[in-house]
Amino acid sequence: MPVANHNNESSPCLYLALPVMDESRQINRLLESIEAQNYHNFKLFVCVNQPDDWWHVPEKIAICNDNAHSLEILKNHSGKSITLIDKSSPGEGWKGKHQGVGWARKTVMDAINAVASNNDLIVSIDADTWYPPGYLYSLAGNLLTNPDATAFAVPYYHKLTGEERADRAILRYEIYMRYYSLNLWRCNIPYRFTAIGSALAAPVWAYRRIGGITPHMSGEDFYFLLKLAKIGRVVTWNSEMAFPAARFSDRVLFGTGPAMIRGDGGDWSSYPFYDPKQFDLVSETFTSLYNAQNMPLQNQFIGFLNELFKTDDLFAPLRSNHSDRQRFIKACVERIDALRILQYLRLYGINRKLQEEDNLTSYLKDYFGITIPQNFSFNRSTVDQIDEIRNQLAGLESQYMEIEWNRTKN
């Protein structure tokens, strides 16, 4: 990807936004990964954070001490200078409801926003993620190739640990995410991206346009990308991947770590393999929207939306307010967003009579001609067998991303 020079000041500056809590064991490896980057025009901003009252909670004191250790590591780092925001030392931590990773990301991104230029790039990273040496170079090139993009949802791949429980849990979770994404791609449904806080970026001008990131307690990366998708195009292809860690963690309410903990205990109810036919109904809705001025289609998804928004005709006010067809379509797509699609699938997309592998097995066979052994089981199959399915889904997703990439370039 074209970047004039690794050290050329005319190249975009990449601002790395890093929230840190209970990460002292990961920090040095992350710093090594950053120092090894072959793109040098970047700055690292770090927010070490925790609620201030944790210093007085016995079961939280270990996290407080770990954060103090992280601060020392970052202050004594001999490499590239770091802008350090201390939200963890006694008296400096979060007060009241303003706490969590959402506030940490907002704090560090807002600090970047105060000093960055419009055409620079905010790169969201996490301490437990490994970034290959060409990662920043690839993002800078992607930004120059796509100056109109409002966000970059970078491809990801969880590295296995060699510990069977953790590997089974992360593979089950990643397969769920890729299954969900593939159905969106297959049906050409908008918002077909995966939001991972360690693998996304946004140009500063787009960050300013949406008024910054909203500090949700969890899922802030999802809502952040959702806001950015509503003002423009999210690029999902990048020549380099991010490699998040697979580890059990309860620092946030939901996401990878909590999903692994619940899944390891046998509870995957929040991450089911939704019925592919329900995705088809969502796809029908968008197809009808694109092809028919008056939106005549009525189906279960439209009924769900009408009930959700307490109306008999969700689209009537949108038609009245937007006489221009393209503006009407844009308004509809903004209203029927990724959150509404997920809410619909959670209500109607789960067939509780089927084993959790059945939708996955039939989906891969019916739509992609991939046959999974009849005795496949997330509990009984080997880690290698489960990993093979993960890799098949990752390959399919990559094909969709490349097709989209090539289409937008031609």
Describe it.
The chain has two domains: 14-156 and 194-240, Spore Coat Polysaccharide Biosynthesis Protein SpsA, Chain A; 276-409, no CATH class. The mean pLDDT is 90. It is of the alpha/beta class and 410 residues long. It is globular. The longest helix is centred in the last third of the chain and has 27 residues, at 383-409. Helix 1 (24-35) runs parallel beside helix 2, helix 5 (164-186) packs across helix 8 and helix 5 packs parallel to helix 15. It is built from 15 helices and nine strands. The strands form two sheets. A seven-stranded mixed beta sheet has the order 3-2-1-4-7-6-8, sandwiched between helices.
Report a brief summary of the structure.
The protein has 410 residues and is an alpha/beta fold.
The count of strands amounts to 9
By CATH reckoning, the class of the largest domain would read: Alpha Beta
CATH topology of the largest domain: Spore Coat Polysaccharide Biosynthesis Protein SpsA, Chain A
Distance between the termini: 16 Å
Q: Outline the low-pLDDT stretches.
A: none
* Helix content, binned percent: 40-55%
CATH superfamily of the largest domain: Spore Coat Polysaccharide Biosynthesis Protein SpsA, Chain A
Return the string of H and E elements.
EHEHEHEEHEHEHHEEHHHHHHHH
Tally of structural domains: 2
Tell me what the CATH architecture of the largest domain is. Alpha-Beta Complex
Structural class determined from secondary elements: alpha/beta
Molecular shape? globular
The tally of helices reads 15
Average pLDDT reading: 90
User: What composes the largest sheet?
Assistant: 7 strands, mixed
Q: How are the strands of the biggest sheet laid out side by side?
A: 3-2-1-4-7-6-8
Radius of gyration: 22 Å
Q: How much of the sequence is in beta strands?
A: 5-15%
